C-alpha cells in the first residue's frame, strides 16, 4: 500500500522517529479506534468535540443532527482537525522525566464535505452500525426518510494525515539503570464486558453481540 | 460541593438533560480519565493534540517540551479547549437511528497559564506520577534542574466547564419495541493487564504497580 504525502502540516517535528505515513498503519489505527475528537472553530476559538466516527475507503465519516452547532461548524468550509487515540499503556521509567505513554494515534486535517443525498447517507450510516456489530445493519428497523433528513453526515478525506506511535519498555538514561525502583509498562486496553440485554425484549432474538 | 456557572459557551443546546455542572461530577470524570484532547489554534486553524493530563484542585494540568509547537500554542494567550472522554458502552437500539454511546465527558475552555518556577513544576509533575502509581514519585530518580528547564507545565483553570453523560439501555420509539432484533448495551472499559517488568532490572525492587 502507498504512503500519504508528508506536508508542512503533517511533518512531525517532535520525535519524528515515531511518525508513520503509510496507509496500512493509518487504516489499522482508525479501524481499531472508537471515538474521535474533532477540532472546529466556533466564534474564532477551537472547540474539541468527542464523536463516533468510521472509515469507508479513504474517507473518515462523522454524523450529527443537521441543525446543531457541531454540524454547522463542519459545513462552514473551514479546516477541521480530527484525532483518534489508542492508549496502550503507562510507561514507568527510573526517572520521572522518562515516564511516558504507549500509544497509537492518527491526526488528520480536512475541510469536511457534507453527504447530501439520502441514499448515500443511509448506506454510510449502515457502515457505522456494521463496524460495531457486523451483520446488524440488515436486522434493525431501517431509517425513515424523516430520520435521514434530520441526520447530517460528513466525510473527511484521508489526504493530510499522520500517525504517531510509541511502544515498548521505558527508555531510561544509562546512568539511571541501577536506580532502585521497579520499571516497566502497565498495559492498557479498552475491553468489552458481557452484553446487557434491554429487559423489554423476548428471548432468542437475532443480532446479539458475540460476547 | 458547588456548581460551575453555566455560560454562553458551556450551556448545552443539544440534549441539555445530559449536562451536569457540579464540581463532584466534573472532578470524578477528570480523575477517571487518562488522555485529554486539547484544541489549539495553529496558523488560524484548529489542531487537536492528544496529551496526558492531571487535576490538582481547580486546575487541569498538561506538560510538554518547552520549545514545541504545542507549548508555543499553549502560551500564545489564546483560548484553548480541552476534552476528556470516557467511553462506557455501545448502545444497540431496535432502529439504526436510536443507536448511541454510553459515555461521560468533560469539556473546558481556558486561556492556559504557564507555570514558571522550577519548584512548582517539580511538585506538579510529581502529582502526575502519583496519579498513575500512588507512592511512586518518592521512589524515582528526581528531576534535575536541566530536565525541569526543558519541561513546560500549563494550568487550565476549571471555570468554564461542562460535563455531559449518557447511561442506561437504548431509548427506542414505542412503535419499535417489538422489532425482532436483540437490543441492549455492550459495556466497554479501559482495563489494565499484568505489569510487564523491563527485563534490565534486579528482582524485588519497590514501586511495582499492584497488578
Ligand atoms: C496518548 C498520548 C499522550 C501524550 N501525552 C503527551 C504529553 O503529556 N505531553 C506532550 O508534550 N505530548 C504528549 N503526546 C504527544 C502529542 O500528541 C504531540 O505529538 C506532541 O505534543 C508534539 O506536538 P506538536 O504539535 O508540538 O508536534 P509537531 O511534531 O510540531 O506536529 C507536527 C505534525 O505532526 C503530526 N503529529 C503530531 N503529533 C501527532 C500525534 N500525536 N499523532 C499523529 N500525528 C501527530 C501532525 O500531523 C502535526 O500537524 C501524547 C500523545 C498521545 C497519543
Ligand atoms: C463518546 C461520545 C460519542 C459521541 N458521538 C457523537 C456522534 O456520533 N454525533 C454527534 O452529533 N454527537 C456525538 N456526541 C456528542 C457530542 O460530543 C456533542 O455533545 C454533540 O455533537 C453536540 O455538540 P454541539 O457543539 O452542537 O453542542 P452544544 O450543545 O451546542 O454545545 C454547547 C456547549 O455544551 C457543552 N458540551 C457539548 N458537548 C459536550 C460534551 N460531549 N461533553 C461536555 N460538554 C459538552 C460545551 O460546554 C459546549 O460548549 C458524542 C459524545 C461522546 C462523549
Ligand atoms: C507519569 C508521568 C509522565 C507521563 C505519563 C508522561 C508522558 C509523556 C508523553 C506521552 C510525552 C510525549 C512523548 C511523545 O511525543 O511521544 C511526554 C513528553 C515530555 N515529557 Fe513527560 N510524562 C511524565 C512525566 C514527566 C516528567 C516528571 C517530566 C519532567 C521532569 C516530563 C517531561 C517531558 C518532556 C520535556 C517532554 C517532551 C519530550 C519531547 O518532545 O522531546 N515528563 N511525556
Ligand atoms: C451504531 C450506530 C450509531 C452510533 C454509535 C451513534 C451514536 C450517536 C451519538 C453518541 C450521538 C450523540 C448523542 C448525544 O449528544 O448524547 C448521536 C447523535 C445522533 N445520531 Fe447517531 N449513532 C448511530 C447511528 C445513527 C443512525 C443510523 C442515524 C440516522 C439514521 C443517526 C442519527 C443521529 C442523529 C440525528 C443524532 C443527533 C441527535 C440530537 O442531537 O438530537 N445515528 N449518535
From TrEMBL, chains A, B:
Domain of life: Bacteria
A matching Pfam family: Pyridox_ox_2
InterPro entries in the record: Pyridox_Oxase-rel (IPR024747), Split_barrel_FMN-bd (IPR012349)
Protein's name in the database: Nitroimidazol reductase NimA-like FMN-containing flavoprotein (Pyridoxamine 5'-phosphate oxidase superfamily)
Amino acid at each position: 500500500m502507498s504512503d500519504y504525502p508528508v506536508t508542512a502540516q503533517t511533518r512531525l517535528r517532535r520525535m519524528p522517529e515515531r511518525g508513520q505515513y503509510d496507509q496500512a498503519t493509518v487504516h489499522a489505527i482508525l479501524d481499531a479506534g472508537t471515538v474521535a475528537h474533532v477540532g472546529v472553530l466556533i466564534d474564532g476559538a477551537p472547540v474539541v468535540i468527542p464523536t463516533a466516527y468510521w472509515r469507508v475507503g479513504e474517507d473518515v465519516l462523522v454524523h450529527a443532527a443537521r441543525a446543531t452547532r457541531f454540524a454547522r461548524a463542519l459545513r462552514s468550509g473551514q479546516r477541521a482537525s480530527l484525532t483518534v487515540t489508542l492508549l496502550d499503556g503507562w510507561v514507568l521509567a527510573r526517572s520521572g522525566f522518562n515516564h511516558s505513554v504507549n500509544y497509537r494515534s492518527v491526526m488528520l486535517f480536512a475541510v469536511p464535505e457534507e453527504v447530501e443525498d439520502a441514499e448515500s447517507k443511509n448506506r454510510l450510516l449502515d457502515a457505522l452500525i456494521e463496524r460495531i456489530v457486523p451483520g446488524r445493519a440488515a436486522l434493525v428497523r431501517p431509517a425513515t426518510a424523516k430520520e435521514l433528513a434530520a441526520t447530517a453526515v460528513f466525510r473527511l478525506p484521508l489526504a493530510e494525515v499522520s500517525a504517531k506511535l510509541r511502544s515498548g519498555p521505558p527508555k531510561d538514561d544509562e546512568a539511571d539503570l541501577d536506580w532502585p525502583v521497579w520499571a516497566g509498562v502497565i498495559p492498557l486496553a479498552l475491553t468489552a464486558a458481557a452484553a446487557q440485554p434491554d429487559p423489554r425484549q423476548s428471548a432468542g432474538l437475532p443480532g446479539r453481540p458475540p460476547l
